[in-house]
Amino acid sequence: MIHTIDGKAIAQKLLDSLKKQIAQLPTQPKLAVVYVGDDKPSRTYIRRKQQAAEYVGIDFALHTFPPHISKQDLIQNIITIQKDKNLSGVIVQLPLPEPLYTDEVLNAVRPEFDVDCLTDTNIGKLVMKTHAITPPTPEAVCVVLDEIAVNVEGKNITIIGAGALVGKPLSVMLLNRKATVTTCNSRTKNLKKHCRKADIIVSAVGKKDLVRGNMVKKGTIVIDTGISFEKGKMYGDINFKEVSKKASYVTPTPGGIGPITVALLLKNVIQLSSQNLQN
Predict the structure, then answer these.
(1) Residues tagged active-site
(2) Tens digit of pLDDT for each residue in 187-199?
(3) Which residues lie across from 139 on neighbouring strands?
(4) Strand 200-203 to strand 156-160: parallel, antiparallel, or no bridges (unpaired)?
(5) What is the CATH class of 27-111?
(6) For 13-41, how does the pLDDT look when each residue is reduced to its tens digit (9 = 90+)?
(7) Residues 6+ apart with CB under 8 A from 210
(8) Contact between residue 211 and residue 239 where contact means Cβ atoms under 8 Å apart
(9) Class of domain 136-257
(10) What are the residue boundaries of the structural domains of the chain, listed by start?
C-alpha cells in the first residue's frame, strides 16, 4: 500500500511549536535574506519563507541586489548586513548569478548566522558531529524518516545528487546514523542498478522524471527533494504516477519536503538566536 507523505502537515506541526518557543524568547529573532538577480523560482521560495517567518513571529528582512553586482560588493553588503545587533540569521538565496556562485560569497556569512549551514565552518562541524544546527533540506529528509518511524541503521540508501545543499551533507548525516549510503552523481554508471538495490531513495537533482517506476523495487521509500519548473508548473525528480505503484512511502512535489525545509530553516534561526544571546 502506498503512503503519500504530507509535508504540509508535518511542517505545520513544526511551525506551531516554533511559534510557542518564540513567544517565550526575551527578544524577537530576525532573519535576513540576500537575493541577487531576478530568478523567479527564488522569488517564490523567498515569499514562502517570509510567510512562514511572519507566522511564527520572526522579523524578516529582504535585501535585494541587481544581477550585475560584483562579488566584492556583494560580500561587503553581506558583511554590513551582519552588523545589525538584532540579527539572528542570514540566508544567501541560491542560485546566485553564475559569476557570483562561489564559496567566497557563502563564507562571507558568519557561522553564527549561517542558518542554511553552508559555510565551511558549519559543514566541517557537521562532519565531525560537533554541529549545533543541521542543513534544512537534509534534516527535512531525516524528519520524514522519523515521522514514519524508519530506523535507517543498516538500511541501503541511494542518494541521487552530490550537491552542497542536499546530497553531500545528507550523506554525512545518514552515515552518522549508521546507514549504508551510496551517493550518485552525473558520472555514475547504471543509476537504475544503484536505485534497485536501495531500501530508501533520496533524489536531489532538479530534473523532471529522473526517477521512473522501473528504477524502484517494491516497498522502497522514495523521498524527492529536487525541484524544477516547466511552463510555470513545479515538478520534482520522480515520476510520481509510476513510482507510487512501487514505493511504500513517497513524497509529492509540491507539498512534500519543501514546507518542512522552510520550517526547519526557521528552527535554525531560533537556535542561533538563542545561542547568540548567550554569547
Answers:
(1) 49, 93, 116
(2) 999 999 999 999 9
(3) none
(4) parallel
(5) alpha beta
(6) 999 999 999 999 999 999 999 999 998 88
(7) 160, 203, 226, 237, 238
(8) yes
(9) alpha beta
(10) 27-111, 136-257
